[in-house]
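Researcher: Structure for this, please.
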Amino acid sequence: MRAALRVRPAPVSADVRLLAIASEHLARLGPKRVTVVAVAAEAGMTHANVYRYFPSKDALLDAVVGRWLRDLEAELGRIADAPDPADDKIERLLTVLAAAQRDALNRSPHLFAVHLDATVAARPIARRHRVRLRSLVERVVEEGIGAGAFVARDRERAIAYIFDASYRFTHPLAIHHDADVPADLVEARFGALIQAIQRVLRVGIL
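Model: Predicted structure, token format:
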């Protein structure tokens, strides 16, 4: 009997390997102490070779954050696609978005620091994330209006209101500023805000 053929795993591409190394360096050293030279050395290549895939250190670290943001956006997308009522979806979208970032601040502070810096500097990774978030919220608002759950005289104002009202709990800069606020107090304030957002969307004062 012939021995079963062993299937060799596909080789990991250079950019994926660099991201894995950069992610480990970021978690261990923090963004200021990560260097392209050290990442390249561990990957067995020159730092000039790294720049073929990532044009700068910021681009490399932003790509690490981008992987985390894509996973978060995928989770938010599943919420937007669920068959639940629109008002429930708005609550879940904002809750997951807020919780994921606060969790990153507490568990992965260096990752959060890059996310915060990219957002404040409006780097491409942050701008793309903002566009995707808006698209998801827009879908849920339109669904709510179509189903009669939301009453909005101006859809754009309704979407802007959701982001403006939830800023303190969903924007990384505000989350950073509230880092020392007890979690139970944040949750209580956030719960009250969600109820207010849902009430405004149902009443249709925008």
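Researcher: Any notable elements?
Model: The two ends are 74 Å apart (CA to CA). The chain has two domains: 10-55, 64-203.
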